[in-house]
TrEMBL record:
It comes from Pseudosporangium ferrugineum. InterPro entries: Rossmann-like_a/b/a_fold, Universal_stress_UspA, UspA. Gene3D superfamilies: HUPs (3.40.50.620). Residues 37-171 form the UspA domain. This is Universal stress protein family protein. Belongs to the universal stress protein A family.
Length: 182
């Protein structure tokens, strides 16, 4: 998709400001957002801190709940190229989500926080379904260091075309990096 096509199909604008954390909010032209929760999609990719900080700030500003979601995709051993950690049980996936929240979203965050683990073969369709009832979906630009010339991962690219609510895209940030990936 070229940038010209992107401009015609979407309303792309800077997001609500969160100090030190750039983001873009993408809406389909003519889309009217609902008043649902801010949904933040997290993974074990080192990006959760920024995603949760952004989601918490926006949810507090909008006065809506914050729902943090981890999509537990089926492992396909021995080759799991898209997975940082494979989970055999729902309990393992829940421990991952709870650990991310405990580390990066302290108690008293100022918003109601809902937790959800979804089991799905692919993350994008699961997040697309959730987005139909959300006010905003927050995702990272990529779970891995973006390839040269490609700053968006496959899940984010799919959500740009199909999300049912505005999509906030937070740039990839390498561990220890002080600047974002774009």
């Amino acid at each position: 998709m070229s940038s010209t096509t992107l401009v015609r199909q979407f309303d792309v604008r800077p997001a609500l400001s969160v100090p030190g954390l750039p983001a873009l909010v993408v809406r389909r032209t003519g889309f009217t957002p609902g008043a649902g929760p801010v949904i933040v999609a997290v993974d074990a990719d080192g990006q959760a801190a920024g995603l949760l900080r952004y989601g918490r700030t926006v949810a507090a500003e909008l006065g809506v709940a914050l729902r943090v979601v981890y999509v537990w995709t089926a492992c396909r051993p021995p080759h799991c190229p898209g997975h940082r950690s494979c989970h055999d049980t729902l309990g393992d996936a829940e421990r991952l989500l709870n650990g991310l929240l405990d580390r990066h979203l302290p108690l008293g965050a100022g918003v109601d926080v809902e937790r959800e683990v979804l089991r799905s073969t692919e993350a994008a369709p699961a997040l697309e379904a959730l987005s139909r009832h959300a006010g905003l979906l927050v995702v990272g630009s990529s779970s891995d260091l973006p390839a040269p010339g490609r700053s968006l991962g496959s899940t984010t690219r799919a959500l740009l075309r199909r999300a049912g609510c505005p999509l906030a895209v937070i740039p990839y940030r390498a561990s220890g990096a002080t600047r974002s990936g774009w």
